[in-house]
Structures are given as C-alpha cells and as structure tokens.
Amino acid sequence: MSDSGNKHISPSKPRKKLILLLFTSFLLVAAAVIGIVAGVNSRENIIKSSSTHSIVKSSCSTTFYPDLCYSTIANAPELGNKAISTPKDVIALSLNATKTAVEKNYFSVKRLLKKKGLTGREKTALHDCLETIDETLDEVRKAEEDLNQYPSFNKSLTQNADDLQTLLSAAITNQETCLDGFFYDKADKKVRESLIGGQLHVEKMCSNALAMIKNMTDTDIANEIALKGRNLRENEEGGINEWPEWLSAGDRRLLQSTTVTPNVVVAADGSGNYRTVSAAVAAAPEGSSERYVIRIKAGVYRENVDVPKKKTNLMFLGDGRTTTIITGSRNVVDGSTTFNSATVGIVIQKSRIDATSDLKPVKSSFPTFLGRPWKLYSRTVVMQSAIGDLIDPAGWHIWDGDFALSTLEYREYGNSGAGAGTSGRVTWGGYKVITSATEAQQYTPGTFIAGGSWLRSTTFPFSLGL
C-alpha cells in the first residue's frame, strides 16, 4: 500500500515486530523460569550434600511434622547464603520461616475482618485473633534473638532451654486460643473454617521449632551434666534466698522497702488521680524501662482491667487483699469471647475449697465440681487442700461426651475434708489419685514452675515443696 507523500508500508513489518516482541517476552519468561529452577536446584543441591542432609534430616526427625520441617528448610530463601553445620542452624531457618508464616496469617485475618455480614462477636473474635497473632510474632522474634545468643553466658543451659521452650509453647497455644473464639454457633464455625488452615499451619511450624529446640537443649544439658556432675541442675534452680535474674537492683529495693511512693493513686471516692484502675493503666507510659507504681486505695472496683503488652513495668499496689477488690464479669451469653473473659492467672496452693456464705444454704441445688476438661490435654492437680462437702462425689465433670477423658491429666493428692474422698470419683483414663510423695513432688512450685528462683521476689508467702 502507498499513500501520497508517505513512504511505502509493508504489511509484514508489524507482523515481524509482533513476532519479535513475543519471542523476546518468551525469552524473558524462560530466563525467569530458568532462574527460579536454578535457584531451587541450587538449594536442593545444598540440602542434598551429605553433611547438610544429615543434620537437617536428624533435626526434622525429632518433630511431629518431619515432611513440613524438611520442605521448610529446603525452600528457605537464605539457604544458599547460610552454612548448615549444627542443629542450631536448622532451627534458625525454621524460626525465620515461621515468622514469615505468622506475618502472612496476620494479613489474612485483616482481610477477613473486612467481610460484610460479620456479627459483633465474630468481629470481636477476629480482633482477638489479631492480638494473639501479634503476640505470636513477638514470641517468635524473641525466640530468634535468644537462639542467636544461645548458649547465653548470662543464664544457665536450663534457663536458656526453659525460656526458648516457653516462647514457642506460648506461640502454639495462641493459635488454639484464636480458634476458640468461633465455637458458639453455625455462623461462627463458618468463619472458623476460613481461619483454620492458616492457624494450623503456624501451629505446626511452631511445633516443629519447639521439638528441635527441646532436642538440642536436652542434649546440651545432658552433656553438661555428664561433664560437670549430676548435681548441676539442682544447683541451677537456686535457693529461696536468691532473686530472679530478670529483677533489677532497683526493683529489689522497691520490693524490700516498707514504704513505696506511687506514681499515681486510684481511689473510687475521687480522692486520687483516677477513679478506675483502667483509667490509670491507660494513662501509664508505654515501653517504660522503669517501674510505674499504681496504688489502688481501699474499695470495690467493678471493672475488667486489661493491661496491654506495651504497658510494661506496671506495679499494682493495693491496701490489702480484703480491702482493695477488683471484680468484673464477662461471659459468652453477653457476647464476649472466652479470650476476653479472664484477665489474670492464679495459682492456689494448700487451699480451702468450700461454699461461700450465700451458697451454703442452697448448695444442694447447685452441683459443684473440681473442674472439667475444656482442652484435649487439660491438666489440674489438687493437692493438700481442704475440700468441703459441696464438691460432688464424682469430683470432676465432662465437657462434651467423652471428649478428652483419656488425654486429660487430673490428679488428687493428700487432700482432707468431707469432699476429699475419692471412692466415688470418675473412672476416666486420665484421672488418677497420687499415692507417692515422689510423684506429687513434680507438681510442687519448686519443681513445676522453678519457684525457688523467683517466688521470693513477689513477697507473698509460699512453700516450694510438699
């Protein structure tokens, strides 16, 4: 074709240009694919090397999900830049991959929150999930830091192991806690189905890291005991006259002092800086490196006090356990989630379990039990306590059919009182009456929570053993 004043245009030229562009695009795609394949092959060659393969295989064999463990290491982006010569190296790669999985899960939940038609409780439960995922991310990051310093000369091997294992154990629990918010009705369960894949993946990743950490630290501790003597672990626990390593000199002086000057005062009658504990917590500094003391004057404070993790180094100082009382009430019926129903954890030692004055006249109308298994591996031990006759002879109650009856761990030892008899107790596979003091000893504060190394700092009365 020709046009007056224009050059001749060949119809084959655009076609050639198009073919050339397509060919160039194909070359670029092919190059990218070859690059990816080369990268994958490079990592596979690294992990298939005899020494690396042996270490990775040995480490992953200690986990519950070895295939996931192995593929995680094989696909680690930094594998080509990092030598794998010890189990610690494998764990480091595993933790980094776990961190990435947690971050991905966080954004998945954020997207789910934008869905239309969510109920108020579903939104609350999803916000709970974001909080627990955020906690998990902090715990995995802290585990990475601790692993990088392992073994730290500032702590014993046992303390190193306990800290690392506690971080990963908490991270695993967080995944279940998130899912627990979606068990109330059919609509809840639909949201749960959208979450479960990501949550379980992170749980398995954390589980693998925990298993490898336990295997590594157990081996190191055993080697150290063999080298230095069997009394090493007992010496590491510390006596009741020692302060915990994390308590600063300033805090020790603060706890030993008979007079403490508070930063702010809470008083229900308006005579302090704030009328509620929650208001005082909200006004406290974030990320404080110094202890911030909130004195709570005598009175009844009907509120659920939540202390965000950024409010560090807070100390509550009341006027006495019978005069300063904080009480609140949250339950599922009112639209709350289990995650938000409790704000503190407690340990009851050598206690008295009996009816309150208002329950005593009508206790026969309200069957009372020592506990029921909310989780598959629920564990409750009641030892050396006085149990009143309000406790049903069966002692324990089911949660839902035969759920957890063989996997739970319910124990009783050395109790007294009208409700302490065990002849009529449940016959579940997981229930047992302890008859050996040696067996009971493992549940005492000194052994179970290493109380000898830190309980003194609380200034509360305690007993480490039986």
From TrEMBL:
<feature type="domain" description="Pectinesterase inhibitor">
    <location>
        <begin position="51"/>
        <end position="212"/>
    </location>
</feature>
<keyword id="KW-0961">Cell wall biogenesis/degradation</keyword>
<keyword id="KW-0325">Glycoprotein</keyword>
<dbReference type="InterPro" id="IPR018040">
    <property type="entry name" value="Pectinesterase_Tyr_AS"/>
</dbReference>
<dbReference type="InterPro" id="IPR006501">
    <property type="entry name" value="Pectinesterase_inhib_dom"/>
</dbReference>
<keyword id="KW-0378">Hydrolase</keyword>
<dbReference type="InterPro" id="IPR012334">
    <property type="entry name" value="Pectin_lyas_fold"/>
</dbReference>
<comment type="similarity">
    <text>In the N-terminal section; belongs to the PMEI family.</text>
</comment>
<protein>
    <recommendedName>
        <fullName>Pectinesterase</fullName>
        <ecNumber>3.1.1.11</ecNumber>
    </recommendedName>
</protein>
<dbReference type="Pfam" id="PF04043">
    <property type="entry name" value="PMEI"/>
</dbReference>
<dbReference type="InterPro" id="IPR011050">
    <property type="entry name" value="Pectin_lyase_fold/virulence"/>
</dbReference>
<dbReference type="GO" id="GO:0042545">
    <property type="term" value="P:cell wall modification"/>
</dbReference>
<comment type="function">
    <text>Acts in the modification of cell walls via demethylesterification of cell wall pectin.</text>
</comment>
<comment type="similarity">
    <text>In the C-terminal section; belongs to the pectinesterase family.</text>
</comment>
<dbReference type="InterPro" id="IPR035513">
    <property type="entry name" value="Invertase/methylesterase_inhib"/>
</dbReference>
<comment type="pathway">
    <text>Glycan metabolism; pectin degradation; 2-dehydro-3-deoxy-D-gluconate from pectin: step 1/5.</text>
</comment>
<dbReference type="InterPro" id="IPR000070">
    <property type="entry name" value="Pectinesterase_cat"/>
</dbReference>
<keyword id="KW-0134">Cell wall</keyword>
<dbReference type="GO" id="GO:0045490">
    <property type="term" value="P:pectin catabolic process"/>
</dbReference>
<dbReference type="GO" id="GO:0004857">
    <property type="term" value="F:enzyme inhibitor activity"/>
</dbReference>
<keyword id="KW-0063">Aspartyl esterase</keyword>
<keyword id="KW-0964">Secreted</keyword>
<dbReference type="Pfam" id="PF01095">
    <property type="entry name" value="Pectinesterase"/>
</dbReference>
<keyword id="KW-1015">Disulfide bond</keyword>
<dbReference type="GO" id="GO:0030599">
    <property type="term" value="F:pectinesterase activity"/>
</dbReference>
